[in-house]
Design goal:
Elements (H helix, E strand, L loop, with lengths): L1 E7 L1 H5 L3 H11 L2 E8 L3 H7 L9 H8 L4 E8 L2 H9 L12 H5 L8 E3 L3 H11 L13 H5 L3
Antiparallel strand pairs: 1-3, 1-4, 2-3
The structure holds guanosine-5'-diphosphate (GDP) and magnesium ion.
The site of guanosine-5'-diphosphate has 10 residues, from helix 4.
Length: about 150
């Protein structure tokens, strides 16, 4: 079982796509275990995107993520990290596969709607950065056996 951090970025919030994005993750079978709606401050933005510091798009990226509220969530499921990134599509919307969120709703890499952790290590770091342990609510879902059952 894996957990992954997902952000619905400011452009998606402004465009009224919160529901659409949650719908796709829920429908996939992933389970929501934490969520908050917040305005990202400079410090959180810089820590979250520290790996990109020094890249040409870094300053714009920090301005983008702090420009308007975001929806931060933790989703859980078997292979959740890869599954969420697959549902989101490639970083550049013009390279994202049809049927993915970034393909279906975005055009520019600098306005690509979502963030999702890219490995178990970054998922653990990012979840700890965005959520206190007591803000995570693992729960038993009646359909778990139908989604996660092995045989
Ligand atoms: P992700 O994991 O798919 O979100 O992609 P990365 O970790 O490589 O980059 C983080 C975020 O930085 C992306 O989601 C984009 O919003 C932004 N970004 C990445 N590459 C570029 C770029 O070449 N130009 C601009 N403007 N933004 C970029
Ligand atoms: Mg990334």
């Amino acid at each position: 079982m894996e957990r992954t951090l997902v952000l619905i970025k400011p452009d998606a919030v402004q465009r009224g796509l919160i529901g659409e994005i949650i719908l796709r993750l829920e429908r996939r079978g992933l389970k929501l275990i934490a969520a908050k709606f917040l305005q990202v401050n400079q410090e959180l933005a810089e820590t979250h995107y520290a790996v990109h510091k020094g890249k040409p798009f870094y300053e714009g990226l920090v301005r983008y993520i702090t420009s308007s509220p975001v929806m931060a969530m933790v989703w859980e499921g078997p292979n959740a990290i890869a599954a969420v990134r697959q549902t989101m599509g490639a970083t550049r919307p013009t390279e994202a596969a049809p049927g993915t969120i970034r393909h279906d709703f975005a055009l520019e890499v600098g306005r690509n709607l979502t963030h999702a952790s890219d490995s178990p290590e970054t998922a653990a770091q990012e979840i700890a950065l965005w959520f206190k342990p007591e803000e995570l609510y693992p729960w038993d879902r009646a359909t778990d056996a139908w989604i996660m059952g092995q045989n």
